[in-house]
Amino acid sequence: MHPFYAGASRPEGLCDGAWRSIHQYVFALANGAKQFWFNDWIRKPGTAISCCNDGLRPVFFLIEATDEEVSSPFKKQ
């Protein structure tokens, strides 16, 4: 398992296909979402599970909200 920390943009080292599969969950969690799927099978708040959507790679993603700060691609430095 390899952790990535993401905000509004794809983390370095994560492939584009993987990012397309998970970015909507990352965005929602980064903006305060707590529960997905109407409290059905994922009961831990701030958690989502997704998989690669290309149909070829058996890769699953556990996506969790954290308190880690990530740099914004929109802030001037």
Q: How is this structure best summarized?
A:
The chain is of the alpha+beta class and 77 residues long. It is 19% helix and 13% strand.
How would you describe this structure to a colleague?
- This protein has 77 residues and is of the alpha+beta class.
- The protein starts with 15 loop residues before the first helix and ends in a 13-residue tail after the last strand.
- The radius of gyration is 13 Å and the shape is globular.
- It has a two-stranded antiparallel ribbon with strand order 1-2.
- The protein is 19% helix and 13% strand.
Task: Please tag this protein with its features.
about 80 residues, alpha+beta, 2 strands
Mass-distribution shape: globular
Task: Give the uncertain stretches in residue-range form.
Answer: none
- Number of beta-strand segments: 2
Task: Give the helix proportion (percent range).
Answer: 10-25%
**Radius of gyration over alpha carbons?**
13 Å
Mean pLDDT over the full residue set: 80
Structural class: alpha+beta
Strand order of the largest sheet: 1-2
How much of the residues is beta strand, in percent? 5-15%
Describe the main β-sheet briefly.
2 strands, antiparallel
- Total DSSP helices: 1
Amino-to-carboxy terminus distance: 32 Å
* Element order: H for helix, E for strand: HEE
